[in-house]
Design a protein that fits this description.
By secondary structure, the chain is an alpha+beta fold. It contains six helices and five strands, in the order βααααβαβββα. The chain has a five-stranded mixed beta sheet.
Length: 129
């Protein structure tokens, strides 16, 4: 993946929502908003390397409307899921830019699970007439 920038908001969200994960990294656990983000890039680059893009997140209309209202409609989004950690990194990129930003981090429970619908009571063509 091309260069990805980190935001203060994303670091605050991972500390807030995933304290047990942060306990594994003393730099991340002790980070304060006045601190630099430079020390955290190795951790987030490792997370990005472990992650897989999950487009099913884009089907969650309620959450996507929230993202659009927060970050804009003219923005491309990527949802990078880290399966073993139940973490999803939300990346955003303005269409005029050539780099993504990690704008927030959410638990994977926001991702809609696939639902298979069975149409057992489907009417046949002859029954419709």
């Amino acid at each position: 993946m091309k260069k990805v920038f980190l935001t203060y908001h994303a670091v605050e969200r991972i500390q807030e929502r995933f304290p047990l994960f942060c306990d594994n990294f003393t730099v991340l656990k002790n980070w304060k908003k006045k601190s630099s983000l430079d020390d955290l890039y190795p951790i987030f680059n490792e997370l990005l390397a472990k992650s897989k893009e999950n487009n099913s997140f884009l089907n969650n209309t309620t959450y996507m409307i929230h993202l659009y209202e927060t970050y804009g409609y003219d923005v491309e989004y990527k949802m990078m899921e880290i399966p073993n950690e139940a973490i999803v990194l939300v990346l955003a990129k303005k269409r005029s830019e050539n780099h993504f930003r990690i704008v927030t981090i959410v638990p994977d429970r926001f991702i809609p699970k696939s639902i298979s619908t069975k149409y057992s009571d489907k009417k046949k063509k002859s029954e419709i007439k």
